[in-house]
Specification:
This protein is α/β, with parallel strands linked by helices and 194 residues long. Helix content is 31%, strand content 28%. The chain has a single domain, classed as 3-Layer(aba) Sandwich (Rossmann fold). Strands 1, 2, 3, 4, 5, 6, 7 and 8 form an 8-stranded mixed beta sheet that branches.
């Protein structure tokens, strides 16, 4: 849920990158941090373990254009994909305004992708949110790998709502900013609703 500071004329929105472990969520934020001008973004914060795996979350604040005289600031988070961090994911989706679901396109990762999708639906439901109406973008990541599922198959599994979806290679930055732009537009459109 967006937080509006009328005195500061600032709107803060929360975008969460969700998906299974090692799907490319943290890599997305790293690429956004690299590719956006330093005046628009804050410092990327990553809480990782010794294997460079996300423990709690990654966080990157990003300022965008003004909307009706208000500065818009996106607070972007990733969730840890490992199963044992279920409680962390529940906390991180609280107050979310938009989701970028990062699918690992490799065929052998489909079960983990589907489990993460179900986990997302359940965590949102606990918060009184519905994935069927929340701003959503889907990334089919790791498209440069061998053994990836066809996009048509992935669309049938994950994109029944026909939301914007992107074939991405987060490690190279391919499709990352386009995904961010698509989710940002949806979140801003939701803000304008009465």
């Amino acid at each position: 849920m967006s937080f509006i500071h009328p005195l500061e004329k600032e709107i803060n929105c929360k975008i969460v990158y969700y998906g299974p472990a090692l799907a490319g969520k943290s890599t997305n934020l790293q690429q956004i941090s690299k590719k956006t001008s330093s005046g628009k973004q804050g410092k990327l914060v990553s809480l990782t373990n010794t294997e460079d795996r996300t423990l709690f979350f990654d966080f990157l604040p990003l300022s965008l254009q003004k909307v009706q005289g208000y500065s818009v600031r996106f607070h972007m988070y990733t969730v840890p994909g490992q199963v044992l961090y279920e409680n962390s994911r529940k906390i991180i989706v609280k107050g979310v305004d938009g989701i970028v679901f990062v699918v690992d396109s490799q065929v052998e990762r489909m079960e983990e992708n589907l489990q993460s999708w179900k986990d997302l639906e359940a965590n949102l439901k606990e918060q009184g949110l519905d994935l069927a109406t929340l701003p959503l973008v889907i990334q089919y990541n790791k498209r440069d790998m061998s053994g990836v599922a066809p996009v048509e198959q992935l669309q049938k599994l994950f994109n029944k709502r026909d939301v914007p979806s992107f074939e991405t290679v987060a490690s190279k930055g391919t499709g990352v900013l386009e995904s961010l732009q698509a989710i940002s537009k949806q979140v801003l459109r939701d803000l304008k609703k009465p």
